[in-house]
């Protein structure tokens, strides 16, 4: 965990980690933060309340209240409402293979390639709905799923989603570093060519 946190430039704070472990790891942003960990940081620092996570619902609020030694409270409706677990579903005959949904998925639960039909790995989908808005042909819908999909309980699903999200972030960071290095080498090569015509 510490190596991964270091790779992602995250500070290890036990309280933040404990709070983050209780969040559903949908990375949906409904809480008004850009993911579960930033929301956990805000709770730990007193900048956010425990009742801003619609996907976590009353159960998540109760878990946070127990951890922090405060009274549970109802979900703040300003941030949305708790809904039954759902997963994204791509209407295959309508998919144009634009890959915008793949780029939006925070846990890499969508498979596909440019100009090819995409599909969602239902057992990996967190139900964040972030793939819906970028789809130019509206071929993504949300479908309710049984609570036992994949045979994992709520906390196991959360841990798996967190691992997938962190792996995606690390991959994106590595891709950005590699792209910057390639650009640097191309610039150096161009400078050499112009210096020695």
Portion of residues within helices: 40-55%
Structural class: mainly alpha
As laid out across the biggest beta sheet, the strand order is 1-4
Query: What is the correct CATH architecture of the largest domain?
Result: Orthogonal Bundle
Mean pLDDT: 90
Q: What's the main sheet like? A: 2 strands, antiparallel
Q: Helical element count?
A: 6
* Strand residues, percent: 5-15%
Give the terminus-to-terminus CA distance: 51 Å
CATH topology of the largest domain: 3-methyladenine DNA Glycosylase II, Chain A, domain 3
CATH superfamily of the largest domain: Electron transport complex subunit B, putative Fe-S cluster
SSE topology string: HHHHEHEEEH
Shape: globular
**What is the gyration radius calculated from CA atoms?**
20 Å
Number of strands: 4
User: How many domains would you count in the coordinates?
Assistant: 2
For the record, what CATH class of the largest domain applies? Mainly Alpha
Enumerate the spans where pLDDT stays under 50 for 5 or more consecutive residues: 1-7
In a few lines, what is going on in this structure?
The protein contains 6 helices and 4 strands, in the order ααααβαβββα. It is mainly α and 197 residues long.
